[in-house]
Amino acid sequence: MTSKRTTLLSALLLTFTFAATAAPMSKDEYKAAKEDISVKYKAAKKACSVHTGNAKDICIEEAKGVEKVARAELQAKYEPSAKHTYEVLVAKAKAGYEVAKEKCDDQTGNAKDVCRKEANAAYTAAMADAKLKEKTSENEKQAAEKITDAKSTAMDKNASAQKSANTDVRDANYKTAIEKCDAFAGDVKNNCIADAKQRFGK
Q1: Which residues contact 45 (CB under 8 A, 6 or more apart)?
Q2: Whose CA is closest to 101, among 87, 129, 122?
Q3: Distances (CA, A) of 93 to 15, 82, 178
Q4: Whole-model pTM above 0.90?
Q5: How far does CA 146 lie from the centroid of its chain?
Q6: Does residue 82 contact residue 134 with C-beta atoms inside 8 Å?
Q7: Which pLDDT band, with edges at 50, 70 and 90, does 20 fall under?
Q8: Cβ neighbours of residue 133 closer than 8 Å, sequence gap 6 or more
């Protein structure tokens, strides 16, 4: 029975994970999804009544875990951010931890102690991974911003260099035109110079 519940938990978590990666939702869709999560949680919790003892406790923790992860993923879908993505990973880590601890109560003595240690180790690893992904995301975002700034600065410098190069070319062509005017005299020369100044904006 526990195996079936675990399979169900995994299936539900995958379902909510898939939903969280879909297109952005409206406020009305968000509210409806929250209500749907609440309805499913109450139904899952009620279904646990068929069990007794620790089996019932495990079932309840699984239902709680699915509900908390679903809410975290819904929030991440509604308001995408590195913070909400991190909170999804934390919710999954905590949900898994609570279920694992509850399952340890089926054991006694050293076996129970080992089970608790393993559950704690798995939780610690999951939280460390969540924190790592959060930091990695932040670092990549900062790097992207720096690259964008660098590209913008480079474009500005390129534009400035191009402007300077155009000015140098225009000045050189102007000097050449003026030099050609020296071949003339009187009004012809004056007209030549005036024309050169007009063409090169002098």
Answers
A1: 60, 63, 64
A2: 122
A3: 17, 17, 80
A4: no
A5: 17
A6: yes
A7: very low
A8: 85, 86, 89
